[in-house]
Amino acid sequence: MADQDPAGISPLQQMVASGTGAVVTSLFMTPLDVVKVRLQSQRPSMASELMPSSRLWSLSYTKWKCLLYCNGVLEPLYLCPNGARCATWFQDPTRFTGTMDAFVKIVRHEGTRTLWSGLPATLVMTVPATAIYFTAYDQLKAFLCGRALTSDLYAPMVAGALAR
């Protein structure tokens, strides 16, 4: 492949540009993804009407107090010795009514940094993949068009398929 495509951009410049684009996209999209996951993970409103208002149940035994929290995904069981109040650390999760409501409640109760939880994993996954894909796509498209191996109409499709 050529060291530089006809537009005068080197593969290194293409990798930096596409990697920067992946970082900027991740910075803007991660908060939306956090809110989306929180909205999807809460129980539907009908299920909350069928259940008691609190999803926290406590059963007392002679020496142990049992705390069961039901969040729809996991049902952890906590045993507290000597009937100690182990429920004081736990706060029932807030119910979200919409996207903006979720943004406001997450920031208010958990802090602004929570909106970017998961960002490092997203960056580790998307930046290399995006940089490699777009650089390979541009280089393959320039190679295919330059060698007249395919028509200019099919070169982007072939380059995209090969780059993936």
Characterization of the model:
With 164 residues, the protein is mainly alpha-helical. 53% of the residues lie in helices and 10% in strands. The longest helix has 31 residues, at 11-41. The relative contact order is 0.17. The model is unreliable at 46-65 and 87-92 (pLDDT under 50). It is a multi-pass membrane protein. Solcar repeats lie at residues 9-143.
Q: Please report the number of helical segments.
A: 5
Task: List the helices and strands in order.
Answer: HHEEEHHH
Radius of gyration: 26 Å
Largest sheet: 3 strands, antiparallel
Could you tell me the mean pLDDT? 76
* Fraction of helical residues: 40-55%
Which percent band covers the strand fraction? 5-15%
**Uncertain stretches of 5 or more adjacent residues:** 46-65, 87-92
What strand order characterises the main sheet?
1-2-3
State the shape. Answer: elongated
Based on secondary structure, the structural category is mainly alpha
InterPro entries: MCP_dom_sf, MCP_transmembrane, Mtm1-like
GO molecular function, one term: metal ion binding
Pfam families: Mito_carr (PF00153)
Catalytic activity: glutathione(in) = glutathione(out)
Features of the shown structure:
164 residues; mainly alpha; three-stranded antiparallel sheet; 5 helices; 53% helix; elongated
Topology readout:
Elements: H1 11-41, H2 45-50, E1 56-60, E2 64-69, E3 77-81, H3 99-110, H4 119-147, H5 155-163
Helix pairs in contact: 1-3, 1-4, 4-5
